[in-house]
Design a protein that fits this description.
It contains 14 helices and 11 strands. By secondary structure, it is an alpha+beta fold.
Length: 321
């Protein structure tokens, strides 16, 4: 006997929670409503060295190009908020790593859980097609997540759930099944501009980001050599990534602590800068094992550690009487 779409949607959501996701919603597989914005953003060069964003543009802006015949997108999210140490690292001594990167590489456990949903769905609905995505496929996952009611896209460009906050890892199962859709959330940023005001490199404007000024980009994605201009940006102690715009968000101050064992930190807040500068290949591999940190090569780690130390010295000279 066929399963009614609304019952199937309910079962899909139960399955998503069963395999370990905190939030789940269903969005229509429609073309992006921000296609022109993305085109203009790319043409303006605000993606910097992230040239992969230029490729497969049609797929990226239309999920039916990613999976022909797609009708629905099951969007999921996992909370990765964990308690922060109370002691702040000393400037010029320790380089900070973004919170998500202190735990096991999420690709290693996130994808298999998506596959569990997709495999189950094909079992109960033979003949349907599915395709899974995290952040390694050409899918605008934040827009889809917002469309599915997972949260809304805030002024810091992150998806924000009013209860959990924005510490969310996103993924999706695209399917040819036509399912009932969830309602998007209303924007709850209001007049708040804390994320914009707190960004030390002025990378944020409301609902948009200049990646070439973003500390996460500068410490992870940037491939071109450092220039005087980039060194002049006040990037602080951030060695890999940045959490500033999330740390100041009011929704994150009351956010729920995650119980997922996979997001428990495997390291402290960061690494000693002198330690990084002394790393050889074996030490680098040992320090970054099982973490999503190997996206940045050893020489890039060393270059960034030097940048932090240089900035600290420069600031010290500026404040000397």
């Amino acid at each position: 006997m066929p399963i009614e779409p609304r019952h199937l949607a309910s079962q899909i959501k139960d399955k998503a929670r069963e395999v370990g996701f905190d939030l789940v919603g269903i969005a229509p597989a429609e073309p992006s409503r921000h296609r022109q914005f993305l085109r203009d953003w790319l043409d303006s060069g605000k993606h910097g060295d992230m040239h992969y964003l230029e490729r497969r543009f049609d797929e990226r802006t239309d999920v039916t190009q990613f999976l022909p015949g797609a009708k629905s997108v099951v969007c999921v999210a996992a909370n990765y908020k964990t308690p922060e140490p109370e002691v702040e690292p000393q400037p010029g001594t320790t380089g900070i790593v973004a919170r998500y990167a202190r735990a096991r590489d999420y690709h290693d456990w996130f994808k298999p859980r998506l596959y569990q949903i997709a495999d189950w769905l094909r079992e109960v609905m033979p003949g349907c097609s599915t395709k899974c995505g995290v952040d390694t496929v050409p899918v605008l996952e934040r827009e889809l997540a917002a469309r599915a009611g997972i949260g809304y896209v805030g002024k810091n460009t992150c998806v924000i759930d009013p209860e959990i906050g924005s510490w969310l890892l996103l993924g999706e199962v695209v399917t040819t099944l036509e399912l009932p859709y969830d309602q998007p959330m209303l924007d709850r940023c209001g007049t708040c501009t804390r994320c914009i005001d707190a960004c030390p490199t002025a990378a944020l404007t409301p609902y948009a980001i200049d990646a070439t000024r973003c500390i996460s980009y500068l410490t992870i994605e940037r491939q071109t050599p450092s220039t005087d201009d980039s060194l002049a940006l006040p990037t602080g102690n951030w060695l890999f990534g940045c959490d500033i715009c999330q740390d100041v968000c009011p929704h994150n101050r009351k956010g729920v602590i995650s119980l997922h064992p996979d997001v428990r930190p495997m390291m402290g807040q960061g690494f000693g800068l002198d330690d990084v500068l002394n790393w050889d290949e074996p030490a680098y591999h040992a320090a970054t094992r099982k973490l999503p940190l190997r996206r940045v090569k050893l020489q890039q780690w060393k270059d960034r550690a030097r940048e932090i130390k240089t900035q600290v010295k420069t600031q010290a000279k500026l404040i000397q009487p």
